[in-house]
Amino acid sequence: MRDRLAVDDLVTAYAVAVDDGDWTAYRGLFTADGRADYRSAGGIEGDADRVAAWLAENLAPFAVRQHLIVNRQVRFGDLDQDTGDTARVRADYLNPMRLAPLRLPAADGCAAPDLECGGRYDFGLLRTPEGWRLSEVVVREKWRRTPHRG
Description:
alpha+beta; Nuclear Transport Factor 2, Chain: A; seven-stranded mixed sheet; 3 helices; 7 strands; 25% helix
């Protein structure tokens, strides 16, 4: 149960780091050889440093980012050669984002997102001396919506 909670905390920390643009924290969530693959969402694949730099540049225009990661399925390694030090998490995501304010917000104080997307994450995790870390993140974007401009 403790490992399940730690793995869940790591996935949440991933979402918070991306939403807050905390790229130092993002890098710290990965193993030394950890990789991320955002190609299905129009991004890149590479080590955590390279991907963090790409995310920082490409998400900078969005003042509001809200990563919701739900329906988490956690599986711990239980093969003969694995002592439970690996895990896989499959989880769905919904990600509304809003560009930096170039206009006044809607009357209710909340402007609609400028971009929404959703899909599924596949996280690979490894137990390290520092705790659970991401060894792999694969994004599988399933849909994307931008508002129609008149």
